[in-house]
Amino acid sequence: RAMKLDVTAFRYITKEEFRVLTAVEMGMRNHEFVPAQLVEGIAKVSRGNCYKLLLTLLRHKLVAHDGKKYDGYRLTYHGYDFLAIRALAMRGSIACVGRRLGVGKESDVHYAQGPNGELLALKLHRLGRISFRAIKTKRDYLRGREHASWMYMARLAAVKEYAYMKALGDEGFPVPTPVDQNRHVVVMSFVRATPLYHMRHLDRPHQVLERLMRLLVRLARAGVVHGDFNEFNLMIDEEEKVTLIDFPQLVHTHHANAEEYFDRDVMGVREFFRKRMNIEVEEWPTWHEVALEDSAGGGDRAGSGPGGSAASAALLRTGAIEGLGQEDDALLVAAHERGRNQDRAQRDGQEADEEEEPSSSDEEGDEDGAADADEPGCGGADRGA
After folding, report:
1. Catalytic site residue 348?
2. Whose CA is closest to 228, among 199, 258, 268?
């Protein structure tokens, strides 16, 4: 992919260069391309020095330059990556970033190492690269933020994912443990498991199937619908226990499309086990049954988990996240749906081709952890940068 993160240059970027990079980011709140004079003013550096610093950032592809209309600069995804990673390193959340372990339609995931040597997963949201143009032409979600659209969307996705991951974890759901979040990047515990779509065989497929259906119901009773509950966002460990990942598209049960998304999640599980495990699912949970149990007081409402907190319970109960309004959330869900439909159409075409001519598959999907690679190969990002 064109936006693959390369952190080898990270340690060589100076504090002054990071100051100029931050100035470009700040200027993009109101400009598509930030005039050089504005960069100088925000960064508080001389014109000559600013020009030299911008040339270095251009060489490392952290900013892009437009000299056709006027002398302006914009932040690239690489530049946004570097700003987020530097902030996380300065806070002591990560010590280094390693090679990429997974790439999905809306994110890239890298190995990372914590301050005590622990293995972590670092997820960089890339939501805007697929979905933004189609969304912004249909609805005016951004309310004057169109110049920073891709950064804005990616940050919203990270904010939402971190909040829900923490809330679900507090309530005892099998999700990665969130560590930190900055801009469009989320740091979480490393899941030593394999994405379900890689699994050709399960020792106890019926037990796994039952766990997945129970998890879907439990989520709905807690107040949320995942919206993309499928083999690409489900991790299976050696004991065939399940970990659920990827939450930017999650919706509250009061959402207008909650029933549709719940039924689609159930159908996704049924189809996977029919095609891959040759298991015909004859009974499955329905939205009507879940709604009836919840209204009768039999649901597992938020706040009942072993580590549940008032904040986690409130989030799952209301869907309210600080800094993420209803229109912001609608933007994320709509963008995800657009990307999901495109990805599904492409995947269906690949499956049709594979039926005619089987071939080995490359890493694909939203992988927040994998069992086949234990060495992070860290390098490039540390607090000394």
Report:
1. no
2. 268
Residue from 318, 347, 369, 324 nearest 111 by CA? 369
Q: 228, 300, 329, 366: which is the annotated catalytic residue?
A: 228
For the chain, report the end-to-end CA distance as a whole number of angstroms. Answer: 26
- C-alpha pair distances (Å), 219 with each of 73, 244, 287, 319, 334: 44, 11, 12, 13, 21
Question: Within the chain, which residues score under 50 in pLDDT?
Answer: 1, 130, 137-144, 146-148, 358-374, 383-385
How far apart CA 21 and CA 19 sit, in angstroms, is: 5
Summarize pLDDT for 47-84 with one digit per residue, the tens: 999 999 999 999 999 999 987 777 799 999 999 999 99
pLDDT, one tens digit per residue, over 75-104 is 999 999 999 999 999 999 999 999 999 887
How many Å is the maximal CA-CA distance in the chain?
72
Contact of 376 with 99, CB cutoff 8 Å: yes
Give how far the C-alpha of residue 65 lies from the chain's centroid of Cα atoms, to the nearest Å.
Answer: 28
